[in-house]
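Case study 2.
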Amino acid sequence: MKLTCLSKGDGFQYPPCHMLNLSGFRLLIDCPLDLSAITIFSPLPYDVGFEASEYPPDVPLDAQNPIQKKQKLARQMTPDDLVCAEPWYKTVKALHLWDVSLIDIVLISNPMGLLGLPFLTQNPRFCAKIYMTEATARIGQLMMEDLVSMHMEFRRFHGPEDSRFPAWTKNLDGEQVPSLLKKVVFGEKGDDLGSWMRLYSLDDIKSCMKKVQAVKFAEEVCYNGTLIIKALSSGLDIGACNWLINGPNGSLSYVSDSIFISHHAKSFDFQGLKGADVMIYSDFSCLQTAETTENDNNYISTISDKNDEDLAASLLDNTESLEEVEKLAFVCSCAIESAGAGGSTLITITRIGIVLQLLELMSNSLDTSSLKVPIFVISSVAEELLAYTNTIPEWLCEQRQEKLISGEPSFGHLKFIKDKKIHLFPAIHSPNLISNWQEPCIIFAPHWSLRLGPSVQLLQRWRGDPKSLLVLEDGISSGLGLLPFRPIAMKILQCSFLSGIRLQKLPTLVSVLRPKIVLVPDVVNERINLTAMKTVSILNYSENKTSRVPRIANNAEVEIMAELATKLSWRKLRQVENFGIARLKGELVMEDGKHRLVSGLEQEESSSGKKARPLRHWGSVAPETLLDALMKIGITSGSIEDRRGENGSEDKSVIHITNPSSGLIETSENGTAIITEDERLASQIFQAIDGILDGI
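Prediction:
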């Protein structure tokens, strides 16, 4: 098995991407887009003027430092530095160089991991099988359609661009270009330029989704009769999953960003991954925080003293989930406070689970207050997306499932939409929105990059109002993201929601799952030392490098039909204890990830009706033992010669036979050769060997 980390991603909005070689098949796990990269583009048309920006430079100037004097790009960055053109989109590095015909399987773990897939499927050589959960497929498709809709609106300002490679890349290679923009466009090593692509179309999305095989929760699907693939909930969001893969050479679990207890999505089903031979840990969420662990060895030693029940219970501690609820309540209180002061709130968070909970909490909070503030959701897919979330109970948490069973909607937004407290509009210029417009208001609107969609116009409208509030999610640099809108007087609340496994829980998780080998990103292992875990083998892997994983199972198992097994004539080996062999003819096939013997039993018979002589023997012949056996059957003249192997060849023993006729017998660890012109002598020697070795 080989694993290549193509990209470690950058948080929830840009998940990691891996290529896996397993049992002769190549698997691509997730194909995201780096949407944070479009912050290099100006969100406004050419004729809109900007006010001067006070955005601080990347590196503080030191008048005494000649190096910084030379790097005069330390000037203050202004909106004029942004690219004023139709946006291109940054894919996983070197996507354009991949031979897509070599990809056999694509696994998509969550909707964000789907956004870059149409770039692959539009290639006529793409022929891989695509698996994702039903919820990921539907939510991901709606997100892609919304992205295309916002992009088309952007084109109305800028006009269509030449389909050739964009000219703006040439303008970003000069010395006066800020280093931050260069880093985004060209990458740290300067080789990311080929990752930029024009956005796909709605037809490309439809074509892509036709190739998808959607799977239900814990449904097993079989690829090519060899790999059994199962999706188990990760708890990150609705439809997000981890993968369990079983094959002829063992089992593998792929653990992506996961949350143990969720208040909207089905929680992390870690018990379903228990016992896998290899675990690939691909949760990079700790890199978005300052979280580290201290006294790793002491902490891990205390884990080894606990039983599985106690360890599992510690993973399900609800402290983290309660903290998330408190964050959501704080966002609501800030919005209510702004509304009370006469200011509006713009929420650009697009993580579906967070939006659903905020809508519910916000509506309940307004219900209990005296404020009459409307909630607007502006998105081309808002109505369809919010309706869909009440039709997928298998991917919701237990509390939401119980609501559906009792006849209530799983999320409260349906009631508030019906009561006209939440209003849905496909676009900011919708006639119904204009007729229902009221300020102050609370608006949920994409895009979180602040370059596309209704958020751009709304932010322009309220940026000078100190009573208004802007709610951002971590993943966007507030400096670069807000650059086109500065100076900005709005209050800004940047939220960091739980998007993966806390480092301190990783050793406990490994102890519960008990894999034989764990692959951990080197950047994660730098923060927590797992080598103290003696019961498992810890291997590190790095971005853009291929890691080889040792083979787990040396001997493959074969399933034989019970009727066939009862007819086998087993022979117990004399040279190997508790080991038996049988001889048969049959067809060996691969079905459902297992070797199976499916044909009937055939035993060869000689012309006299007796069993055929053995064709295969087990073990090696000791020359002295063979010489004694030959003397018992009348071959009395023989001598032994030992020959040393030269130039790496093996040692041999040669038995010279002179009576009743001449011949040689060469014996070694790898086999025995009979050399004589006398067929009767050869037959006698074979009978002697057959009496010494186990044969079938």
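Confidence is low (pLDDT under 50) at residues 46-74, 603-610.
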